[in-house]
Write a structure and sequence with these properties.
The chain is an alpha/beta fold. The protein has one domain: Rossmann fold (3-Layer(aba) Sandwich). Strands 3-2-1-4-5-6-7 form a seven-stranded parallel sheet, sandwiched between helices. α4 runs parallel beside α5 and α6 packs across α7. Bound molecules: 1,4-dihydronicotinamide adenine dinucleotide (NAI). The site of 1,4-dihydronicotinamide adenine dinucleotide has 30 residues, from α1 and α6. GO terms for molecular function: oxidoreductase activity. It holds the Pfam family adh_short_C2. It comes from Pseudoduganella albidiflava.
């Protein structure tokens, strides 16, 4: 189904790379005015250039999604400039290192949980008041690690399980108020996050070589497409779900 987001204001975090960039471009191509947020200013500039080349409308915001002031300032800006928000895709994330729990550095654990989980809480905290005005959607990026426990990835798995919990609570709190909240669980997706890790991290290489029934990793666009669907009226009766998009990895 062709998506139509004309007249809609959409926020995408982690839009300077990978899945977030693909989603931002697709929302813009479907007519949305997109706020693309990321910590990485140069990545955002590339996303901006790609959107402009495709004729889409996209504004950038250099934001640390784990910092309340940054998130509050961004949503205040969207409110000031547009007076509305129709969809939010809370997608920024990091994997962190791979260590057994007894060796996991506490600072790293806090950092991963901050970027992956605290960010989703903060995002929703400041997005929901805007979304409630005219109704809207939230999609949070979890992972197959929201339903499995990959050894060595305690912080990542805990943060992504947490994203699923936050998504369910937000869906319950808002289902009758016109705001639908869902999450996606990508499997192995060919983005800089995975490419960077696979070079230095045997756990990722092992994961890559393990059988994925579809026999390939996802293109980031295949994950972005799920986010667009969950943000569109086509999914109007879907609340609080974790949509697994993993080539069959968790069957
Ligand atoms: P990526 O590394 O290509 O993109 C992530 C983006 O998030 C980067 O542009 C980065 O600068 C941004 N970011 C990191 N920390 C930030 C912060 N504190 N504030 C603002 N922006 C920040 O990675 P990818 O693969 O596109 O990941 C997107 C999401 O998908 C993440 O939440 C990740 O955990 C999730 N995911 C990815 C999978 C994969 O195989 N690539 C599998 C399952 C989930």
């Amino acid at each position: 189904m062709e998506h139509d987001f004309h007249g809609k204001v959409v926020l995408v975090t982690g839009a300077g790379s990978g899945i977030g960039r693909e989603a931002a471009l697709r929302f813009a191509q479907a007519g949305a005015l997109v706020y693309a947020a990321d910590l990485n200013a140069s990545g955002l500039e590339e996303t901006h250039a790609l959107a402009r080349a495709a004729g889409g409308e996209l504004r950038t915001a250099v934001v640390n999604v784990a910092q309340e002031d940054d998130v509050a300032t961004l949503l205040a800006r969207i409110d000031r400039e547009q007076g509305r928000l129709d969809a939010a895709f809370n997608n920024a994330g990091i994997t962190g290192g791979t260590h057994r729990i007894e060796d996991y550095p506490v600072d790293d654990f806090d950092r991963v949980v901050g970027v992956n989980l605290r960010s989703v809480f903060l995002g929703m905290k400041y997005e929901i008041p805007l979304l409630l005005r005219q109704g809207g959607t939230i999609v949070n990026t979890a992972s197959v690690a929201a339903i499995t426990g990959p050894a060595g990835m305690s912080a990542y798995a805990a943060s992504k399980h947490g994203v699923q919990g936050l998504t369910r609570v937000a869906a319950m709190e808002n289902a009758a108020r016109g705001v639908r909240v869902n999450a996606i669980a990508p499997g192995w997706t060919e983005t800089p996050m995975v490419v960077a890790n696979s070079a230095q991290n045997p756990a990722f290489a092992a994961l890559a070589s393990r059988a994925i029934p579809a026999k390939r990793g996802a293109h980031p666009g295949e994950i972005a497409e799920a986010a667009l669907w969950l943000s569109s009226p086509a999914s109007s009766y879907v609340h609080g779900q974790l949509l697994v998009v993993d080539g069959g990895m968790t069957i």
